[in-house]
């Protein structure tokens, strides 16, 4: 299930036209020292923020194995503790901020060719 979620993020954020949509994005496996106590692994999709000069996480999926279910005493019918997957497909605020920032021209206008077909500009 965890790998299916990671594959879903990769399909969503790295389509064939990635360079047009997310020219400064990357998929990242988080190193062990940066994981939360309950996580056994986490993958993130990050976009570059020129103003902050760092990558910002806009989507992530984490696996906690049985850490949480042992504490909550959650078991499946076989009597074993369940393993849990947690994630979010888009942190909308951060995603929009990064897209607007990356799409801004030198004169201050925003050029989002991906969305022009959805928005009629008068």
TrEMBL record:
One GO term (biological process): seryl-tRNA aminoacylation
Gene3D superfamilies: Bira Bifunctional Protein, Domain 2
SUPFAM superfamilies named among the record's database cross-references: Class II aaRS and biotin synthetases
InterPro entries (alphabetical): aa-tRNA-synth_II/BPL/LPL (IPR045864), Ser-tRNA-ligase_type_1 (IPR002317)
GO molecular function, one term: serine-tRNA ligase activity
Protein name as it appears in the record: Uncharacterized protein LOC106166204
Source organism (scientific name): Lingula anatina
């Amino acid at each position: 299930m965890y790998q299916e979620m990671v594959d879903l993020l990769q399909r969503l954020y790295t389509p064939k036209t990635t360079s047009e949509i997310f020219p400064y994005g990357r998929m990242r496996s988080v190193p062990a020292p940066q994981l939360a106590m309950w996580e056994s692994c986490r993958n993130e999709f990050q976009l570059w923020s020129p103003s902050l000069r760092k990558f910002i996480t806009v989507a992530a999926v984490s696996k906690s194995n049985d850490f949480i279910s042992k504490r909550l005493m959650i078991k499946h019918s076989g009597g074993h503790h369940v393993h849990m997957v947690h994630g979010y497909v888009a942190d909308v605020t951060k995603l929009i901020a990064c897209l607007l920032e990356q799409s801004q021209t030198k004169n201050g206008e925003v050029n989002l060719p991906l969305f022009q077909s959805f928005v009629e500009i008068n």
